[in-house]
Structure formats: structure tokens, C-alpha cells
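Q: C-alpha cells for this one, please.
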Amino acid sequence: MKINLVLTAYFNAEWKYAFDPKLTKKVDFHTSANTVTPVDMMSITGEFVLEYIKAIDTDVLHLPFKQKHLKMTLLVPRKIDGINTLIQNLTMVHMTNLHRRGKARPVNVQLPKFKIDSEDDLKKPMQDLGIHDLFSNVNISKLATSKGPLKVDHIIQRVVLDVDERGAEVAFASRTSLKPQHIVVDRPFLFLVREDNDVYFAGRVNFTP
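A: Here is the predicted structure, written as C-alpha cells:
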């Protein structure tokens, strides 16, 4: 008997600082160097950690969630068509740099609302890691009422990530005389949802026109 296992994760945590829905507006997102598509662009001004990694020509922005230590790290290439180069050059050395804790400073952030809904078959990746018995005859009778040899034919993982304006607090940067920096996420970018050094979700965002 063949069994398909389906793993589903849904993530929609609240930001620590809310985006004001009244500031959300349609803005062109560069899906490539020559094409754009309108997206709902959120906006907020507050004190965030924004760094630049010269080796990969990328701005790195850390947006905290309401949950302690949980944040979304955005990797935004400086070049509109720089996403593929970023992915190719993103080594573990650079990943280590993402965990540096820079100093929060006033930043105006413009970030598109987006929703990731992906589904992947983990059978081959698990086999590549040396897990083979699970996909042949294996004793998992407690998971099924049928008698006879059982095996897992597929392990389907589905992840839904929903990013919008909702947050827990209002961000203010007016207590400082420093002029806010600006980052406009209007090109393909990478994101990581992480807690300290643990990455729970990671992906690439590029809106299809």
C-alpha cells in the first residue's frame, strides 16, 4: 500500500510595528529590467536595522515581528536585475554576516504585500540525504488501518506565507534629528523568516506581470 504524507504550514505573524493601511498604494514593481507590474506597496517609517553588504551588492533589512526574537530579513539587490547574481553569490560566509546585529536607525521602508503558496515533493531531497527505507517497505502500520506492506510514495510539503500591514505597535522615528534612510523593495528579492540563527522559511519574491 502506498501512502502520501502531506505537511502543511501556515505563517501569518504580526509585525512588531504596524504598516498603516492608509499609506498602501499601487506602485510599479520591476519583475525584470524591462518589465513592471503594479503591486500594493506598504510604507512605514521607524527605527530598523538596515545594512549594506558590498560583496553581494545588496541591502539587508531586518523587520521584527511581535514574537520575541522573530524577524524577517529582506535581501534586496541594488540592481533591478541583480537577483540571480545575488543567489549565485550568496554563500554561507555571507549568511553568517546576516546575523550581525547592526544599530537601528530611522528608515522609511516601502515593502510590497505578498503571499507565498508553494508545494514541493520532498521525496527526492530526502533520498539525496540518504533516507531510503521510508520509501520502501517500512513498518508504519500505526499510521494506517490496512494490513500488509506499507511504504511512503510521496511527502508533500505545502507552505503558505501571508505578508500584509498588520502589526502590534506604531513605529515612530520622530524622536531623532537624523534624516531617515529609504529602501524601496520594488525588484525581485529574497526573504528569510528567522529566530536568531534558525531559519524557518526562506524564499524569493518576483511578481508575475
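A few notes: Residues 14-115+163-205 form a domain with the Alpha-1-antitrypsin; domain 1 fold (CATH 2.30.39.10). The two ends are 43 Å apart (CA to CA).
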